[in-house]
Write the structure tokens for this entry.
Amino acid sequence: MKKYIIILTLASLIFSQSEQPYPPLELVSIPTAGTLPKGSYTYETTLSKGGTVMPKLVIGLTSSLSIGISYGMNGIIGNSEPDFNMHPGFHLKYRAFDESTTSPAFLLGINTQGKGKYTEAEKIGIGPINRYEQKALGFFMSMSKNWDFFGNLGFHIGINKNFWEETGNPTDDNQLNIFFGFDKELNRSFSLLLECDSGLNDNQDEYEFEDLTFGRGKGFVNAGIRWSMAPNILVEVNFNDIRKTSNAKYVNREIKIMYSESF
């Protein structure tokens, strides 16, 4: 058995990946410093828990500037009543500095799209709640550095702050947050993704009200595998909140399909 594992590992290292049409814009959910090529767009659909469907369109206006819009719809797949997010998500990325041999790429951005259902209420037990299950990044800065190590190896780190999503208490829920992760090409078709959102802007076990569950300030660890199915089609299988910081019994699995084209 060990022999087969070694052979598969060596094969994945020998055949470097060459089919992905652009650098990763995100890992599982955290942003990289990558942007779309000028005059191109990508359309993606995420299928997640509870029959959630979230389409997203991103357009590369220049080689450094990308804008996009997304919209979350819960319960679309299945026999439960559909629940639509109150507002669409807005996405903007501007790469201020390109990557060089000695320094990482540096990017500024805005992302108003959180994950899961959006809860809006004046008072639920102990205070006002206006937020997604996992908060949107809000304003963020990210840096990315890549190396050729038997295929691309990229490291990514950044900070973010969300000013508008509220959970009442504790008041430090709106503090600066840190995220980081990496992607590694395994062969021509597959890449491995791993990331950590530290969850510093999430509550600390403050809420346990009926079916409302949010993060518990312990961070979110997500992993995924990305398949370059065709030169302009990418498919991801992602595993979210591996540490299960909420009261969920199992890891949240999702599928993401991405199609890109030039115009």
